[in-house]
Write a structure and sequence with these properties.
The protein has 196 residues and is mostly beta strands. Helices cover 0% and strands 47% of the residues. Strand 26 and strand 27 form a beta hairpin.
Length: 196
């Protein structure tokens, strides 16, 4: 389920991208399926997808893979990354696992200059964060800010990322004043990452 698109499969060639740009969603997005994807803009994005300059203000709720902008991307194409850039979420994002203010989980994705102001609620303690639930392999976070509260079933933390495996996090902050910078690659810093 998505506020703009439920699923985007993108192009078959690395020379072409499906671009979602300058979109806005103000409506509630809900998915009740047990294995679900829900995003304020796009629920599921496969390869060769760019989401740019878009905003979500509608609450997003799903069982898992839930994000204020994108729910889930399983991209396996390393040569041409998906993109989430210059997007903003101001709504509440709620899910069981893989829950993030910008995206739930997205592989091979460049995530930059995004802002999450919405609260993020996970009904378990796994993969819940202000920017990303899971920052997986070859996904890069650059210059993102989250000011929303992150609450899981057992902790009130993971202000930026629930879990980061081999993804890279640079110049990504929690709070408006940018007083808590993080620059990490597989490193837990200032309790802003749940686990690495």
């Amino acid at each position: 389920a998505g506020g703009i698109a439920g699923r985007i499969d993108g192009a078959d060639s690395g020379n072409l991208f499906c671009i979602v740009e300058s979109c806005r969603n103000d409506n509630t997005v809900t998915s009740t399926a047990s294995s679900s994807y829900a995003g304020g803009i796009v629920g599921y994005a496969n390869t060769y997808v760019k989401i740019k300059k878009s905003a979500n203000s509608g609450d997003v709720t799903a069982k898992k893979y839930t994000g204020g902008i994108l729910g889930y991307s399983p991209s396996t194409v390393s040569a041409k990354h998906n993109v989430i850039s210059n997007c903003a979420n101001s709504a509440v994002v709620t899910g069981t696992t893989y829950v993030g203010g910008i995206f739930g989980s997205s592989t091979y994705t460049d995530v930059s200059y995004n802002n999450n102001g919405g609260n993020v609620h996970g009904t378990t303690s796994a993969y819940v964060g202000g920017i990303a639930g899971l920052n997986p392999e070859s996904t890069t976070l650059l210059c993102n800010i989250s000011t929303g509260t992150v609450v899981s079933s057992t902790v009130v933390e993971n202000a930026l990322v629930g879990t980061s495996s081999t993804g890279t996090i640079t110049e990504t902050y929690y709070d408006n004043q940018r007083t808590k910078p993080i620059s990490a690659n597989g490193q837990n810093t200032l309790n802003l990452i749940g686990s690495a």
